[in-house]
Amino acid sequence: MDSSELYHVKQQFILGAHKSLVALALPDPNAADYNSILLYQARSHIALHDSKSALKLVPSNTHNVAFRAVASLARYVAAQGESTKEASLEELRDLSVEIEGDDVEATPREKASVRVIAGTAFAMAGEVEEALETLGTDTEDLEAVAVIVQIYLSINRPDLAKREYERSKRWAEDDLLLQLIESNIGLVTGKDGYSNTLSFYTEQLGNPSLTSPHILTARGVTRILRNEIPEAKSDLEESMEQQQQNDAESLAAYIVACGLGPSKKGEADEHWLRLQTEHPTHPLVLDMAQKSALFDEAVSKFVVPPLATAA
């Protein structure tokens, strides 16, 4: 049974309240929850694109497999070159093998953390099969299930995501993470007109102790899909304000909302230019570039017939 402090930290991490989480003071190093809370803080720093702070939290020369895994993830996210990225992935592969040994000194929670962290990195690298194998499709760790569901949704297999969710309902408690998994599937599939998904995000945002731009963005996207454009823009504007305009997902969703509803002249173009400049590898930018290239190719093959002239 988790302590109330660890429970609160875990809920903040699950709902993407990373800024609030990293601002919390760590408990005494001798406290039973110290390692778990430090690990969530380090992962939150990584989610905020601050790998340096994550690495500062992790003790140097640690033998703790979960700490070593999160340090490898931080190095992977911060790496610029492919060789450096691959080196970090190799570290995570080695750790994934190490925790299966009989002589490893690690708790079940630490082993589960290694699998989730390694699986996350492999998924980010596009190694889908390796990520799923590492996480374990028969796992009874709900955080691993959440990552598996996200992987299935990212490769357009909501059927497999639903199957994984239904499987987890047989053994998992009806806690917040399980509800979030259900809402994420609903966001992709449009079940019940997104009503359950919208209700879940709205309920979480009503919590006075939670500040989560991630949930605001999710609700904004849900409202776009429900054709509630002014409300969606309001959510996305607030999300970007909380993140000092740095989040690519909120910006991309806001551009879509501007294109679908009334907006200031040139507003969508201004934000689109910013997305292209600051986040050139964002899927929306890459997709638009590909479609633009296909259009230009089609135009180049089109021959304009000569104008008809009077006989």
UniProtKB/TrEMBL annotation:
GO terms for biological process: endoplasmic reticulum to Golgi vesicle-mediated transport; intra-Golgi vesicle-mediated transport; protein transport; retrograde vesicle-mediated transport, Golgi to endoplasmic reticulum. It holds the Pfam family Coatomer_E. Keywords: Cytoplasm, Cytoplasmic vesicle, ER-Golgi transport, Golgi apparatus, Membrane, Protein transport, Transport. It is a peripheral membrane protein. One of its GO terms (molecular function) is structural molecule activity. It is found in: Cytoplasmic vesicle, COPI-coated vesicle membrane; Golgi apparatus membrane. GO terms for cellular component: COPI vesicle coat; Golgi membrane. Its main location: membrane. It comes from the Eukaryota. The coatomer is a cytosolic protein complex that binds to dilysine motifs and reversibly associates with Golgi non-clathrin-coated vesicles, which further mediate biosynthetic protein transport from the ER, via the Golgi up to the trans Golgi network. The coatomer complex is required for budding from Golgi membranes, and is essential for the retrograde Golgi-to-ER transport of dilysine-tagged proteins. Belongs to the COPE family. PANTHER family: COATOMER SUBUNIT EPSILON (PTHR10805:SF0). This is Coatomer subunit epsilon. It comes from Marasmius oreades.
